[in-house]
Amino acid sequence: MKIQDKSKKTKYSLWLLAWPIFIELFLQFLIGAVDTLMVSRISDNAVAVVGISNQLFNALTTLFATVASGAGIVIAQKLGSRKEEEARTVAIIALKVSAAIGFGLSMLLVLFPRPIAIMLQLPHDLLPLAETYIAIAGGGMILAAIMTALSTAIRSTGNTKAPMYTAVGMNIIHIILNYCFIFGALGIPQMGLTGVAISTVASRLLATFVLLFIFLGAFQRRIEIKDIRVFDGKLFKEVMAIGWPLGVSMANWVFSQLAIFSFLAILGSLELAARTYMNTLESFCFLLGYSLALAVQIQIANQYGAGKTKEAYNSLYRALVVGLPLVTVNALIVVLLGKYVLGLFTSDADILALCSSLLLLNLVLQPGKMINMALGNALNAVGDTRFTMVISLFSMWIVATGFSYYLGVSMGWGIVAIYACMIADEYLRGVLSFFRWRDRKYLRTREESLKREQELAVGRQAESGVIVEV
């Protein structure tokens, strides 16, 4: 038993959970940049269509990510409390529900691509391209939904390496297929943006099969085809109790970012271009912090389920001790080297000058992001998702979005003011989450629940003893 506990402790260590997540996210970011570069060889219009369509796809992803994220936390909690069968059931339910949502979204995008493109305010000359891309790439949303459910479930068992290897393979195949379809390599006809859409769906399909194979053996009792009928209303309710506030929080972030980008568009192409380039640089800092935040969420959820509330409480601070210096150093490196990297993308002196001031603000922003993400994910891990939803509703829309418009657009203080508002939002949510975590509300509730369970168990044993004596 001690060997198993030691193995389990190692499996859920912060470093072993975090590094595969970071590599997976980093490669997705890197391949995404290469993907955009390759699409730019088709035309600027193709890049615009892909960019706007992907914003739509990201927004729709929150619908099935709600179920997958909630299920991931519940799975880690159940495995921590050694309720293996319940964790297995939750994973199956999440897969079915996510697939159903994905199928509905796919049908919507396949059947109504043109009205959707018009709704996105795309210029008339881009509609034919957008119609094709949305129909084909959007038709693969069911695959994205299934992949999200599978990878989240697998990751929540402590196996973060398998989704990483799968993502690496998927992205390599995607780039190879892109090259073939765009440039007509290996005897494949040039298909332009249509080929890029087909490449996206084909690489996702292969990744889905790989993840499904891993998923079937992810739990002690192998998942079989007949298990597709498995459903437990009580467990699904438990998933959604955690999941729906997570979904609202994710939607808040997606749509508040869309709103902020629209404010930048009002300011002008200079500001919009500067923010776009800064997004690329910031990702190096953000991905590291986000990987640690996801890892500590899995770790704390498992410890919470196991009743190790003191360990769960301290795990958050250990993650911050590791994460804050790493993120800060990364942000400092970006400040020092940022202007040289930006020079690879643009030679516009005005954009470079604007980005120089934003690089210094990014040095303040990234530690705030790390604090907020780690604390928010820690609260989510113990089921306190409604609190993170409420503060995100308040802070993202009033501080980040509302004040960005007022100070940046109405008052004319520009993109620097907008950055300042985003910084204020991160630190405000971080501070509120810190006091909530320090209060230990959900951890104390868990301790009381475990105490009652122990008292009931002792009572049953005593009662059984009386019967035996009689």
Automatic annotation (TrEMBL):
It is a multi-pass membrane protein. It is found in: Cell membrane. The chain crosses the membrane at residues 12-31, 56-77, 89-112, 132-153, 165-188, 194-219, 239-267, 316-338, 344-365, 386-407, 413-435. GO terms for cellular component: plasma membrane. Pfam families: MatE (PF01554). Keywords: Cell membrane, Membrane, Transmembrane, Transmembrane helix, Transport. It comes from the Bacteria. Its main location: membrane. GO terms for molecular function: antiporter activity; xenobiotic transmembrane transporter activity. This is MATE family efflux transporter. It comes from Paenibacillus roseus.
